Amino acid sequence: MNLEESIELAVESMGVTLYDITTAKQHDDSIYRVSITAVGGVNLDKCAEVSRMISPILDLDEPLGGKYRLEVSSPGIERKLKSAKHFIASVGEKVKVKDLDTNIHKGELIFANKDKITIKTKSEEKTLEYGSILSASTYFEW
């Protein structure tokens, strides 16, 4: 079992879902970010619980080969969509998708499965296969 699988099992045992794991450099700090989601949202207390739960796992299998800072948080209302799982969980939300031709499609995500998505824009319904997507994120109209 790899590190991500261990973290995912630990997170799910706490009633939340692992959304994503990313690493970043901020000044001289290495940051290991774990994003979690749950039905009804994630609060600060749940993030702290998850942090305490996965910290010993990271002590045994250091993710960045040295000193790092662990951050556990919600991916937020406007979040990147990277996997089919992310798209499927975001059906019904507003999305912005850039395709390989760098066209941007904005609208409601009305369908997603393991192969493709469909977005309802102002003028049409656009279906895209995952291989034709450069980047995607949800967005919120204020």
Q: How does this structure look, described?
A:
By secondary structure, the chain is α+β, with helices and mostly antiparallel strands. It folds into 2 domains: 3-73, RimP-like superfamily, N-terminal (GMP Synthetase, Chain A, domain 3), CATH 3.30.300; 84-138, SH3 type barrels (Roll), CATH 2.30.30.100. The protein contains 3 helices and 8 strands. The strands form 2 sheets. Strands 7-6-5-4-8 form a 5-stranded antiparallel β-sheet. The radius of gyration is 17 Å and the shape is elongated. The model has no long low-confidence stretch (mean pLDDT 92).
Give a quick set of tags describing it.
three-stranded mixed beta sheet, single chain, alpha+beta, GMP Synthetase, Chain A, domain 3, 142 residues, five-stranded antiparallel beta sheet, elongated, SH3 type barrels, 2 domains
Describe the protein's topology.
Blueprint: H1 3-12, E1 17-26, E2 29-37, H2 44-60, E3 69-73, H3 84-89, E4 94-99, E5 104-112, E6 116-120, E7 125-129, E8 133-138
Parallel strand pairs: 2-3
Antiparallel strand pairs: 1-2, 4-5, 4-8, 5-6, 6-7
